[in-house]
């Protein structure tokens, strides 16, 4: 019997498994209890335990997640930015959720992505998929961008892996586990998002900011293992052809003082 097989079934093995999947999944899948014994879905002590003093430098990827609203009266739009670090941690660092019309949240999403260097705006689109994508893409075309930004729907169209299935609680399972075990962390303080997060119970409507964060988190974790290196020569060629903005000055510098 291999050492790994011998370790399975030991108290230490189950303790590690419980930490990795989080209390809610542990209760539902291994204890037969669908709700966490604490009641609320997300606990404040998790957010404080893993909190970062500031956003880490040079993240691998940044995504703006959107839970869209259809009016600016009472119907809040969830609008959150999160980034993936080199250590595989998803860091939540911006939340500008509030009631907004589609035109307003589309503009806010584009401006936020531009400001943060985000490569993607992912919009939750269980309904009105084409309409939501159209309003964001039209807004994107009216802006002078300093870097490419793609607009996608979530769950991805044609996905067969089950992303986005189930109710809000099920869709948030991996996000909640990440907040508990430290693979998802908040940079600084996001008071409104945090307050809504810790008040949320599974029987209630999911806060719009948490719905948006669920989207951004899912997109980031599914990008792990699918990243590729972009050729600097290819970037410059596309800029000359007018297919993208020229790279910033720091990307055009040469090592060893050889000039540009």
Automatic annotation (TrEMBL):
It comes from Mycobacterium deserti. Pfam families: Terminase_6C. Keywords: Viral release from host cell. Residues 64-189 form the Terminase large subunit gp17-like C-terminal domain. This is Terminase large subunit gp17-like C-terminal domain-containing protein. Residues 239-252 have a biased composition (Basic and acidic residues). Residues 239-260 are annotated as: Disordered.
């Amino acid at each position: 019997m291999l050492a790994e097989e011998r370790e399975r079934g030991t108290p230490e093995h189950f303790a590690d498994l419980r930490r990795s999947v989080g209390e809610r999944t542990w209760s539902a899948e291994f204890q037969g209890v669908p709700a966490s014994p604490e009641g609320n879905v997300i606990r404040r002590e998790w957010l404080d335990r893993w909190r970062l003093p500031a956003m880490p430098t040079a993240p691998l990827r940044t995504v703006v997640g959107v839970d869209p609203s259809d009016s600016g009266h009472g119907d809040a739009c969830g609008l959150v930015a999160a980034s993936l670090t080199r250590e595989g941690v998803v860091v939540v660092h911006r939340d500008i959720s509030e009631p907004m019309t589609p035109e307003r949240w589309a503009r806010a999403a584009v401006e936020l992505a531009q400001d943060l260097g985000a490569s993607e705006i992912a919009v939750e689109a269980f309904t009105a998929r084409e309409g939501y994508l159209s309003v964001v893409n039209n807004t994107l075309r009216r802006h002078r961008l300093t870097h490419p930004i793609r607009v996608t729907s979530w769950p991805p169209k044609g996905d067969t892996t089950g992303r986005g299935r189930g109710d809000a609680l099920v869709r948030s399972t991996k996000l909640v586990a990440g907040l508990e075990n430290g693979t998802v962390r908040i940079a600084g303080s996001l008071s409104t998002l945090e307050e809504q997060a810790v008040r949320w119970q599974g029987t209630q409507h999911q806060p719009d900011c948490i719905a948006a964060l669920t989207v951004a988190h899912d997109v980031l974790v599914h990008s792990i293992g699918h990243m590729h290196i972009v050729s600097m020569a290819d970037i410059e060629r596309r800029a000359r052809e007018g297919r993208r903005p020229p790279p910033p000055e720091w990307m055009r510098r040469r090592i060893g003082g050889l000039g540009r």
